[in-house]
């Protein structure tokens, strides 16, 4: 699971004097609860989505080609991170963080209801768009509101974010298990229904505790958009959406291109954000130097996420068609394996945090950590090679545990480290924009995981072997290049290491 927490703008009001929830404000319990159920629904859906799209109609699916289904999965994941930037903009300019969070949670619930109740492509289209936009809005605003529950210098802040992050991972752990169990029992729509019910529980809990626990946190619109610009912005969004819909309806664009399109949009947004900051008069020479040093780190992160997020594309197919999922005499649904990563995150996130704290100034630099992350995730590709071309149930279940263990170790070397790096490298005038740029690395990489998955052919041993060797070769080469560049990156970062 991607660890995408960062601490938003802090409130100057010392709202955190009450010690009620493990010594923290009750708002922490409220936000952790709604985010836990949002992550439950999000990862529960992710664990079913590919199968729902490519399973035959007789088996309860939509009967798509595998390559098209995996492209949609990658595009959907990339869109979530794209819309997180849009959600942050809406929070800063129009609604406020708290209201954006509230309406985003409603959108997520509506999306899951659509998937559960509406048949065929109608339910998929409405459902995925609502969930992507809603999850993107929740992703940043929930953390901004949480940050404003505490005074800027409150010593409990880090502990509060740790509790929050634990809730996120508990939801990510339970989601795939429960939705897959319901799929195996009654079909896909019961799994989607469970996600809708849990999101509804989180939303009701949030509404009931909203006034008492959130109070004024996140209610301020940081940089209000003049009301005279509301209509032009609305019309602009309408035109962009209309153009995309028109291109698909007329056949100019096809659904199997969705991941490529999402990747191009994410790349365009990233380039715009970087150039806009680099050319700004508000940015100092030192800050420009750091922005230059950030480029190879951004590219490394894109490469990492393009492999890591294949757990929802290539690994989904692999778990379905190759993995021996019989455990203690019972065959597990294929999507259950998506719970392994959040389980390892819960077990090892604290270990890594303690390690970096203990090492202090002796810990590896950002460049070295990223290079190690790429090397570790590259090695996972080699684990697939002995089983290339195997039949059904040919890969032992413990192999997927080893792969996900290495995935998690690589994630912990890069994801929380990258979050911290982005906040430290941010020009003083653009703290939010810099984090948005970092989010684009996740969006671009996730979309590419769908594009790359279209090249994966499990029916041919040689093609499968070539695919995993290519993934290994490119990624290990990038790891070595980043390791060679680490001293240059350090010089560009100046005093941020």
Automatic annotation (TrEMBL):
GO terms of molecular function: peptide transmembrane transporter activity
A Pfam family of this chain: PTR2
Membrane topology field: Multi-pass membrane protein
Gene Ontology CC annotations of this record: plasma membrane
Subcellular localization(s) per the UniProt record: Cell membrane; Membrane
Alphabetical list of InterPro entries matching this protein: Dipep/tripep_permease, MFS_trans_sf, MFS_Transporters, POT_fam, PTR2_symporter_CS
Gene3D superfamilies noted in UniProt: MFS general substrate transporter like domains
GO BP annotations, alphabetical order: oligopeptide transport
Transmembrane segments: 40-57, 69-90, 102-133, 162-183, 189-209, 230-255, 261-279, 291-308, 340-358, 370-389, 395-414, 435-455, 467-485
Top-rank taxon: Bacteria
Predominant place of localization: membrane
Keywords on record: Cell membrane, Membrane, Transmembrane, Transmembrane helix, Transport
Family recorded in the similarity comment: Belongs to the major facilitator superfamily. Proton-dependent oligopeptide transporter (POT/PTR) (TC 2.A.17) family.
Matching PANTHER family: PROTON-DEPENDENT OLIGOPEPTIDE FAMILY TRANSPORT PROTEIN (PTHR23517:SF15), RESISTANCE PROTEIN MDTM, PUTATIVE-RELATED-RELATED (PTHR23517)
Protein name listed in UniProt: Di-/tripeptide transporter
Species whose genome carries this gene: Corynebacterium gerontici
